[in-house]
Give the backbone structure.
Amino acid sequence: MHDKTLVAVAAGLGLLALPALAGCGSSGSQGSSDPGTVTLVSHDSWAVSKNVLKDFEKRSGYKVRVLEDGDAGQAVNKAILTKDNPQGDVFFGVDNTLLSRALDNGLFQPYTAKGLDQVGAAHQLDKDKHRVTPVDYGDICVNYDKAYFSEQKLTPPRSFADLAEPRYKNLLVTENAATSSPGLGFLLGSAARYGDEGWPDYWKKLKDNGVKVVDGWEQAYYQEFSGSSEGRKAGGDRPLVVSYASSPPAEVIYAKKRPRTAPTGVASGTCFRQTEFAGVLSNAGNTKGAKAFVDFLISKEFQEDMPLNMYVYPVRQGAKVPAEFTAYGPAAEHPETMASDRIAANRDQWVKSWTSLVLK
């Protein structure tokens, strides 16, 4: 769920020029001209175990081709721009912050996936038309560098309000809400917490308190954040970063020598719940294969494989989550949430206002 830098501006569909599609499979014609191939378009954080993907290919008879297209927001915007002649057959990675844009632009065709009855109703945000299928969920939260706060003998922040206190001045880095999925999620979390009238005043306080804004998650987490292994090497000097509740276990699991505890923690009162979806593209060349792939995404095999590959939680009821995933970073108990119709009604104006308030 971790995003890459986004080149498109998220306000409305006023897009900047987008880079060429970067493929991790073969390149060539739009969509799947070969009826034996299913082309998946996704964000850069798509990942699956090789044996699990091979199982799908063997059972279904389809070969899977994957095209990764940057950050989730960039991938969605590119898919909308190319919807009449799509890059692939199935899209994975549109989340609840951008779902209405995809649906309003007719990106997906209806399909009720096999196994959808095993997915919790709370995740089914398009349950009347089934144009998208929920696949995973996670929490966008502020992470903190445990070593920094220990050395400074400073208590880490726990809430949105804490982040605006003078003792945390010049410590937080966040992503641009107009160019990044977690950046937008953090803005929506603050709007959920403080309301339509209160969130601008909150962001004025954050700006006065020295919040730093960068384009995307990769830059924020790997370059600016002092708590990540990459950030330490890069000289990152911000001990607070907008990331995910699942980032601490990733720090442990990917470490060359696993520490007993995660080097980073989560400010549990700063979280916003994010759900990701997949859908069959409206003009898919291989609709049958795309439907089979969507079924696969909510199968028990894929759902249980997903946590340690994409660091998100399965939506399928009864899917087991690996112990090491939850041991170092459990899902937030009381994350901020927002109804999809409220996001749809306010998102673009909020991003526009946020940009004027924070970046100018």
Q: What stands out?
A: DSSP finds 14 helices and twelve strands in the chain.
